[in-house]
């Protein structure tokens, strides 16, 4: 029948706290100092304010197990995703493992602009898509797939027109990614095996014409 948590003020080193099956209605200002908590059970209480309750736990970077079920706040339609987004360290929520798919859904729901940025820019490829449109990610683009290009592209033989036509919408966003990658500038690195390079003294003693060294060149698109 615990209703107040003022007795926890000096217990700043707690790692486990079991407050389930009580009559708590508000935990604001009572738990935020417990930065070492790893396990917190608050299920079967009377906690109603989801936002205030979860933000009270935001500073607990070591918290990995949390129970909030059987509280009025748990009936919020986005309750689970909201908790996962605000408390990224939690791995076990209401006795159920937090999945990577749930983390991605929570991130997309509560931070849509950054989610779109992460989806559209990665490892040298960019896909412009409207907000809320899922972008499928692939490790590589299949070269054998036929490229579906606009008709204006097919009649262009001028290299200078290539970049201007890159902005023409494609039927498939992945085709635009492929074309963009093909038209990027190259970075070139060259090196030689310095163990085979003769020193000044060796060249003077051998009195021979300097041989051309084998040069290794690597290009990065």
Number of strands: 9
Order of helices and strands: EEHEHEEHHEEHHHEHE
| CATH fold group of the domain at 6-119 | Leucine-rich repeat, LRR (right-handed beta-alpha superhelix)
Q: Would you tell me the structural class of the helices and strands?
A: alpha/beta
Strand content: 5-15%
CATH architecture of the domain at 6-119: Alpha-Beta Horseshoe
Low-confidence stretches: 129-144, 151-166
Given the structure, what is the number of helices?
8
What's the CATH superfamily of the domain at 6-119, by name?
Ribonuclease Inhibitor
Characterization of the model:
The protein starts with 15 loop residues before the first strand and ends with a strand. The chain has 221 residues and is of the alpha/beta class. Among the domains are: 6-119, Leucine-rich repeat, LRR (right-handed beta-alpha superhelix); 184-220, no CATH class. The model is unreliable at 129-144 and 151-166 (pLDDT under 50). A hairpin with a 2-residue loop joins strand 6 and strand 7. Helices cover 28% and strands 13% of the residues. The chain has helices spanning 50-56, 79-86, 100-110, 112-120, 151-154, 161-165, 173-182, 200-206, and strands at 16-18, 39-41, 65-67, 92-93, 96-97, 121-122, 125-126, 187-192, 215-220. The protein has a five-stranded mixed sheet with strand order 1-2-3-4-5, with no helix packed on it. A two-stranded antiparallel ribbon has the order 6-7. Helix 2 (79-86) packs across helix 3 and helix 3 packs across helix 4 (112-120).
